[in-house]
Amino acid sequence: QVQLVESGGGLVQAGGSLRLSCAASGRTFAGYTMAWFRQAPGKEREFAAAIRWISGSTDYTGSVKGRFTISRDNAKNTVYLQMNSLKPADTAVYYCAARAVPTFTTSPTAYNSWGQGTQVTVSS
Fold it and tell me: I need a labelling partner for 23 at 20 to 30 A (CA). Which of 1, 89, 114, 115 fits?
């Protein structure tokens, strides 16, 4: 069973940076796609970024492209989301997700493993 544990959230001023981590366990993730989603209060969960574990290729939603970077560390079975130039609009609970298919999709229903989420708050 896949287990995902996020960490690294917090409070930061606009323009600042945070790095989120997602520790993954329970499987070999070579054929997986890992993603970060976010959900702001009163809004639907939305896709932020994804990475194919075996190739390292990445995908981003337009609003974070150029500011966020997703990466993975094979030795540590950990996925990261480096977030720079943060804006108040980035405030949300950030979730790590996994799917056992090495293709990109932005639909949360396509991912069958989720972490508990970590809060990111960006003050103006």
Answer: 89
Residue among 82, 17, 9, 22 at smallest CA distance from 53 = 22
DSSP-based three-state secondary structure for 66:
coil
Question: 82-101: per-residue pLDDT in tens?
Answer: 999 999 999 999 999 999 99
Handedness of CA 2, 105, 110, 10 (dihedral sign): positive
Residue type, 103: T
CA-CA distance, 69 to 18, in Å (whole number)?
Answer: 11
Q: Are the CB atoms for 80 and 74 separated by under 8 Å?
A: no
Do the strands 118-123 and 10-13 form a parallel or antiparallel pair, or are they unpaired? Answer: parallel
The one-letter amino acid code at 32 reads Y
Classified as helix, coil or strand, 73 is strand
